[in-house]
Amino acid sequence: MDFILRYFERIGLFVLYIINELGSLIIYLWNCILSIFRYSVNLNNLFDQMSFIGMGSFYIVGLTGLFTGMVLSLQSYYAARIVGVTYMIGPTIALSMTRELGPVLTALMITARCGSSMASEIGTMKISEQVDALEVMAVDPFYFLSVPRIIASMIMLPIMSIVTSLIGIFGGYVVYKFFLGLNGTVFVDMIYKYIKLSDIYNGLIKAVFFGIILATISTFKGFEASGGSKGVGRVTTQAVVLSSIYILFADYILTSILF
Amino acid sequence: MIILENVNKSFKNVKVLNNLNISFEDKKITVVIGRSGEGKSVMLKHIVGLLRPDSGRVLFNDIDLNAINKKELNELRKKFGMVFQDGALFDSINIFENVAFPLRQHLKLSEGDIIKKVMSGLNDVGLSGIESKMPAELSGGMRKRVAVARAMILEPETVLFDEPTTGLDPIMSDVINNLIISTQKHFKYTGIIISHDIEGAYKTADTIAMLYEGAIIEKGDAEKFKTSDNPVVRQFVTGSMNGPIVI
Ligand SMILES: Nc1ncnc2c1ncn2[C@@H]1O[C@H](COP(=O)(O)OP(=O)(O)OP(=O)(O)O)[C@@H](O)[C@H]1O
Ligand SMILES: [Mg+2]
């Protein structure tokens, strides 16, 4: 009995921790936004970050999309075959990719790949006094380190989300036509018939939010690093875990608002 | 004039600065000596507002550093250069960009002028030809010298050096000490140097101050330190194991 109670207590503490962080995160994001107005944006840094998040993540994000689309094709085939609606496989894949899986999977993969490195880079700079050095040189670390990452992430997430969705649909198409031996034209025609523009741009709106969330949390956590390499490791883990949770949570909220 | 007034600072329960009072004269070099772990770096970080005192004031030309907003603080900081104890070079950019960094951030110079300034700055610290190396490829002493070059590149009004010669060979130490003296003559900055190098302190300092148990126990010129009858100071400057300071 006791250990069950302790278990719930843990869950409670974890929820409190998540909510607690929200307050500091909002203040932090606000400070970052203020520093945009104060100093404008360093374009060199921005382009560096955009290429890191975009080009750099192309393969991992593409692979994720490809396999997801292929699996979706197979899975929905088993269900659709029973009721004889295999022509709906195309729209099923396209809708799940654009509305849901594209943005969410992209955000989670980019959190793992780029969020972790944002946290550890800034964390290392923090513990080796490079952040202090920036401050003494009268360069706002938020402006210099956070803002380019947050904006780059906000811009690149929707783009990468489109990439994921397109490759996913392509993967689904390949399985549909070549493995399941069904009519490829139907696949494409039905997508055109059932997919609305709003499905696409609502997915993109989600991606924008996910981009802001993951970069805000990851850079914020970086600045919290203290006490050596272990400290950097700790904030990196926290950055990935917290970003993922917030992305999933935001996904639910946004879905209920947008669709 | 930089003045620390009744500054107290503790970390957790350890009192580091204990009612510290010290002033640094304009356009003069003050060397602060003291034992390792005594709070010298902590004191320096108070002067640039990286740390805030638990109580007391840090005044820069009568402006209380902790009473102004971030923007005003940044304006003040443009007048400072600082050499961190571990260099604090940006490890993701090369040596050239490290030294050029303050120039690029605060001045609108042509690329040619930047190159000229950076090259001459690196030359002054005896480091020509390493511009394209990364900080991780340098020795500790070389990094320290790059940090010195970076701190001085904007010719700031005030330069803070946290142990600029620690980790350098005796010849290089002398080069850096001379650089500090000659640049000080040249652009007349206020210099605050933390050092364990007593001979170097005698050579560079207009004023020497000793920090002990969180406060200043002696302040004066080199002569005063050489002839001090404070047993703690005597033990420190002669580097003796025996004396009132217990290990
Ligand atoms: N950020 C911090 N958090 C906790 N304690 C700190 C912090 N910074 C310094 N201290 C403590 O303050 C004391 C003074 O540290 P400081 O770095 O100022 O010493 P120092 O005089 O510069 O020594 P050294 O000559 O070895 O550089 C030490 O006991 C140190 O443990
Ligand atoms: Mg120190």
Brief characterization of the structure:
Chain A is an all-alpha fold and 259 residues long. Chain A contains nine helices and no strands. Chain A has one domain.
What does this entry look like structurally?
- The complex is a heterodimer of chains A (259) and B (247).
- Chain A starts with a helix and ends with a helix.
- In chain A, helix 3 packs parallel to helix 6 (141-179) and helix 4 runs parallel beside helix 8.
- Chain A is built from nine helices and no strands.
- The model of chain A has no long low-confidence stretch (mean pLDDT 93).
- Chain A has helices at 2-39, 43-53, 58-83, 89-127, 130-136, 141-179, 184-194, 197-223, 228-258.
- Chain A has one domain (42-258).
- With 259 residues, chain A is mainly α.
- Chain B has 247 residues and is α/β, with parallel strands linked by helices.
- Chain B is built from nine helices and ten strands.
- In chain B, the strands form two sheets. Chain B has a six-stranded mixed beta sheet, with helices on both faces. A four-stranded antiparallel beta sheet of chain B has the order 2-1-4-5, with helices on one face.
- In chain B, a hairpin with a 2-residue loop joins strand 4 (55-60) and strand 5 (63-64).
- The model of chain B has no long low-confidence stretch (mean pLDDT 93).
- Classes of the chains: A mainly alpha (259), B alpha/beta (247).
- The interface between A and B is medium-sized, with 15 and 22 residues.
- Adenosine-5'-triphosphate (ATP) is lined by residues 11, 14, 16, 34, 36-42, 85 of chain B.
